[in-house]
Amino acid sequence: MTHRDRRYARRVGIASSLQELRHYSATQLLAAGTDLNTVAGRLGHAEGSTTSKFYKFTRPADQRAAAVTLSVPMSASTPAGTWRSTAATAPPQLSRS
């Protein structure tokens, strides 16, 4: 941010730097589900991979959703008859000889 940019930002009441505003807008767009390539284009990145290098983050809400997904019992998410835990299908035990 140049000296001129800082003066302008102070004059119009912006307390953040332009880089902080850029990061904020990219983060908000990604958090709202905007496609990575769309955000990359808005930032001027040639490829989405460039954007993903800088904006890899996990929101607390995403972590909670993942925990809820994994908390569903296996029996509720596995169709009947596709998996059974029996001695016949259990993995073989390694012998220590």
How do the strands and helices of this protein lay out in sequence?
Blueprint: H1 3-12, H2 18-31, H3 36-43, H4 48-54, H5 60-71, H6 74-77
Helix pairs in contact: 2-3, 3-4
How does this model look, in words?
The protein is elongated. It has 97 residues and is mostly helical. Helices cover 57% and strands 0% of the residues. It has a domain at 16-59.
Give a short overview:
The chain is mainly α and 97 residues long. The protein has helices at 3-12, 18-31, 36-43, 48-54, 60-71, 74-77. The chain is built from six helices and no strands.
Q: Keywords, please?
A:
6 helices; 97 residues; elongated; single chain; mainly alpha
Summed over residues and divided by their number, the pLDDT gives a mean of 74
Oligomeric form: single chain
Morphology: elongated
Encode the helix/strand succession as letters: HHHHHH
